[in-house]
Amino acid sequence: MSGIDTAIFVKQPSRTAAYLDWLQMLTGAGLIIFMWCHMILVASVNISPNVMNTIAHFFEATYMAQVGGPLIGLTLLAHFILAARKIPYTSAEQGAIWRHAKMLRHTDTWLWVIQAITAMVILVMGSIHIWTVLTDLPITAAKSAARIQGGFWLVFYLILLPCVELHVGIGFYRIMVKWGIVKRSGRKGFHRFENIWTGVFILIGLITIIRFATLAIS
Questions:
Q1: Which CATH number does the domain housing residue 43 bear?
Q2: pLDDT of 12-37, one tens digit each?
């Protein structure tokens, strides 16, 4: 088949698609930075509940929580809509992706599959988390502890935590690879680093959940 014939059947990338990819990358990068900062700030309860309360009070006194929270929610929704352009929804499409992933045995393909699955979980559970927190201000260590000690929320966060950290870690890796920041020769080493980095944040999250679950509520 000639190059002209091939061009007829192969859909050429458009300028709009490129802009949407940029927006997807930028919203994703913003959410990655936010989630890492969020984890560190919430984990301050492991130092002292007073430290967490002081940090939370600062964000609320400056209205960063009241304004930033809804903005993060909108960014999450925008990122999902942008990424949803490439997510298979029909059973036929999902079956094709699954067969190709098993056939190719390519790590990056499986990482994309994990991202697609965790994205669905995060959209629902992340929205519930944001709504619950923002409709119950001010944020305090005691409130967070009471919520987790309620039972349902403990399971909720034990599911949400690994989904978020896996999605964020894989997203970070894929951004660095897709946009040429990490070259092919450095993929293996960077992927190892990303796995360790993700593992560290999951560990921090688990320690924080345990801290809330055992924190005395006055």
A1: 1.20.1300.10
A2: 666 777 788 888 889 989 999 999 99
pLDDT at 165: 92
Q: How many domains does the chain have?
A: 1
On whether residue 10 sits in a domain, the answer given is: no
In a domain, 149, yes or no: yes
What is the pTM assigned to this prediction?
Answer: 0.79
Q: Which one is predicted more confidently, 99 or 173? A: 173
Query: Residue 124 is part of which domain span?
Result: 15-214
Contact 131, 192 (CB under 8 A): no
Long-range CB contacts (< 8 A, 24+ apart) of 39-45? 39/201, 39/204, 39/205, 39/208, 40/204, 42/144, 42/208, 43/204, 43/205, 43/207, 43/208, 45/141, 45/144, 45/208, 45/211, 45/212, 45/215
Mean residue pLDDT across the chain: 82
The reply to whether 136 falls in a domain is: yes
